[in-house]
């Protein structure tokens, strides 16, 4: 080290004489040129017995000659020496011309117990990491699969088949349909059936987040980006969804400025955190959903045309319930056990008359409304310890049914409309009394003979 700066020489000397690490350096012929006090203590010899001696004469089980011969690097090798159990590293030394000039051996741990302690610490950290990984997975994981999407109508069968095929690709998916049709079920199911199923599924409700928070929620922020920003910053939903799927629900309600930033992510697959300067790259699949007509919004200038075209790759349009009324019995059969479990009730079935009543309704709220009406009906039945849902448990639908009769009879005479209404009222009260004619007559305020004539007239007997 002659001619080198004195400070540098002192630093190197301090490193070599590290009391927590044994160090030995040999030349290309295997003779010891440098050995610190720790190494000399480990081998149990004096300095004169080590420096300038052939390494195999110092320690007969040294592996440094092998390093000189093969050029191998031993990162962490077990080496017992003079009653010590050490973990050591060995590597060759080359000059700037690339010629071998020696080899170094140094201990990573002076005692195997230290290595075991480190191994335990690493194992504990891995266990903790696995815990948090599982926690994140449980929060950002799909809740539904295609099996829970009920429907055998031709429209639903085609839609499910298409969605199952699309799940295997990485294409962007746009799910459209009225509120309550099950758009989120399809989004979850597509992710769960995709190659990304073991990675996060992150849902963002674009309509629920205030405009000033949406950017930081989607893209995250750096420390100090704004007043109240968390120390160390915060990852956004896109980062959390990396390698998985991000579900942008109600995307039609996304503000125009955010649409421009989302378009950049779709095109470049990278973004910057709020307050950041470095681009963050992500590998994420995008599924978007809306109950709006995006084409109309584009024409009105409320939705970017370029973003619409980027989203409009694969479109799944979920039909409203009124267009698949044949699925109502299956939907009731699927929803009833789930509601019983949640409500701790035991209503086992639904009468055919009630099913017919459900099929006559136009369902503006779709499947979500059906579930709400069933929950209300179950509560009514449970109050009277009844195990079956009948038409009487759906009073709002009975009223709606009568209103529909009057609407359908527009253009007919008053007498015809009154007859239809009378027939419907008698039919409903018969069901309510389990076809007890005496009780039906009493509830309707009719004499028994009058009721019998009307039953015969309307063919209800």
Automatic annotation (TrEMBL):
Q: Taking every annotated instance into account, which residue ranges of this chain make up the domain Sigma-54 factor interaction?
A: 149-379
Gene3D superfamilies named among the record's database cross-references: 1.10.8.60, Homeodomain-like, P-loop containing nucleotide triphosphate hydrolases, PAS domain
- In this chain the PAS domain maps to 23-53
Which domain of life does the UniProt lineage start with?
Answer: Bacteria
Which Pfam family, just one, is annotated for this protein?
HTH_8
Q: Name one GO biological process term.
A: regulation of DNA-templated transcription
GO MF: ATP binding; sequence-specific DNA binding
- Identify the keywords attached in UniProt to this record, alphabetized: ATP-binding, DNA-binding, Nucleotide-binding, Transcription, Transcription regulation
Which PANTHER family does this entry report, sorted A to Z? C4-DICARBOXYLATE TRANSPORT TRANSCRIPTIONAL REGULATORY PROTEIN DCTD (PTHR32071:SF57), TRANSCRIPTIONAL REGULATORY PROTEIN (PTHR32071)
Q: Tell me the NCBIfam families matching this sequence.
A: sensory_box (TIGR00229)
Write down what this protein is called: PAS modulated sigma54 specific transcriptional regulator, Fis family
